[in-house]
Each structure stands twice: as C-alpha cells, then as structure tokens.
Specification:
The structure is a single chain. By secondary structure, this protein is an all-alpha fold. It contains 12 helices and no strands. Helices cover about 70% and strands about 0% of the residues. The longest helix has about 30 residues, at about 225-255.
C-alpha cells in the first residue's frame, strides 16, 4: 500500500471539513443533544428510583458509547458518500488507487471525526452531569476500541451494500444503528430479550461492551472475558467486511455496475 495515496484520501476529507462549517457541526451537534437529553432523563430517574442504581453511569455512559459507535460507522460511510455525491468515486479508481488504500484512508478519517466527537461528549457528560469514566478504570479503553472496530466494520459493510445496490441504497444505511440498538443490549441486559434475539445479540460485539459496562456499574468482577469475545468478534468483522468490499468492488467492475458512479448519472 502507498502511504501517499492513503494520505491523499485523508487529506481530501480534511479539506472538505476545513472549508465547510456545515460538515463540522454534525460531528458533535447530534451527539451533544443526545448527551443533554439523556443526562436530564438519568438525573430524573436517579431522583425517583429507590433501586440504588446510578442511572448516570449506566444509561448515560451507554448513550455516550453508542453515539461514539455511530460516529465511527458514519465516519466511514459519510466520507464514501461525499465521493458518491460529488460523482468523484469513479475518478478515484481511474488512478492507481487500490481498494485497501481507499478503505484505509476512510478509516483514518473516521478516527479523526469519531474521536473528536467522543472528546466533546466526554467533556459535556463529565462537566454538566458528573459522569466519571474513572469508575470504569482501564477497561474504558478496550470498551471504546471494541466499539470503534465494530463501527468501522459496519461502515465498510454499508458502503459495500451501496456499491452493490447503487447510490440510492444509502437510505438503507442511515437507520442501521437504530435497527441494531434493540438487539445490542445498549440499555438492558441480553437476558430480557427473547431467545432468538439473544442469539443475534451474542453475534454483536457491542452487546459484550454494554454487558461489561453494566457489570462494572454494579461493582461486579471485571468483565475481561466477555470483552475479549467482543474484541475477537470485532476483528473478525473487520476482516470479513474488507473481504466483502473487495469482492463487491471486483463484481461492480466486472459487470459494469460501477458505471453508475460516473459523472453523467447517479441513479
């Protein structure tokens, strides 16, 4: 892989950000609104509940991490959509650019945008609602990394879907985090789900993160084992999604479907 071509993909995203205020604001605005909304909800739940559970550390922490996962996924897909919307995707692959270099550039752009949003959310949740991530200890880092890798994998799979079905399929991609949330055990344990959905939840790395988050909030033993499962699943999905994208790209080139991304038509 050429580091110069990867840097070029990243630089293109940075130039878009630098020249557009409307592209920068969404990096943190929606996440900040979620933190404020759920921050007040969890404060209210703490005031009316006598269960002894701290809803700020469990539910608000879950909202923050789920938003981070969503930012990581959209960091990949939005950069790809920028190339589709500007009818530039085909031009990129008229150069010696490899699919691995293109994906690496998208992942690096997602690193920048998603961690920028994470910092904003952390500052807001800590200063306004007193959410202390020191309570999670050193496990907070693997929590974040597992979600980041899963978000990247889902982002790459999403752009493969759009590449196969056409630009109009982007409307299948935007609601994907909302579709996954009920079975990812973000706000409740896997055990409350019906048995078939529990099997689906166990296939999602995010469910292990949120199960671990609740275990720490309940002062149970450090959930190292289930986090390891989540980490292995995330790496597997990264490899799988990269393979799917490469296969889909070759299919689009072989069958001529990639012509849908030409400058003449985006249908």
């Amino acid at each position: 892989m050429s580091t110069e071509r990867i840097y070029a993909i990243l630089l293109r995203v940075l130039y878009l950000m630098r020249g557009s205020f409307t592209r920068v604001v969404p990096l943190f605005a929606w996440a900040a609104i979620d933190i404020v909304l759920w921050g007040f909800i969890t404060r209210y739940l703490n005031s009316v509940s006598h269960s002894g559970m701290n809803f700020v550390s469990t539910m608000l922490g879950a909202v923050l991490l789920w938003d981070f996962f969503t930012r990581a996924m959209f960091g990949v897909t939005t950069s790809f959509f920028e190339d589709v919307w500007s009818r530039n995707f085909l031009n990129l692959f008229a150069t010696p650019l490899k699919t691995s270099e293109y994906l690496t550039g998208l992942v690096l752009s997602s690193v920048l945008t998603s961690f920028f949003g994470l910092v904003v959310m952390l500052v807001l949740a800590t200063l306004v609602f007193g959410l202390s991530f020191f309570a999670y200890g050193a496990l907070f880092v693997p929590f974040v990394m597992v979600l980041f890798l899963f978000g990247i994998a889902l982002g790459i799979l999403s752009i493969s879907i759009v590449l196969r079905l056409g630009p109009a399929a982007e409307w299948f991609i935007w609601p994907m985090p909302a579709i996954l949330a009920p079975v990812a055990a973000v706000f409740y344990p896997i055990s409350v789900l019906p048995e078939p959905l529990q099997w689906i939840a166990r296939l999602l790395p995010a469910s292990y993160v949120f199960e671990g988050l609740r275990a720490i909030a309940a002062h149970e033993a450090a959930p190292v084992g289930i986090l390891a499962i989540g980490g292995v699943l995330s790496i597997f999905y990264i490899v799988l999604s990269g393979w799917v994208f490469a296969r889909t790209y070759r299919y689009a080139v072989r069958t001529g479907l990639i012509a849908r991304y030409s400058a003449e038509t985006v249908s």
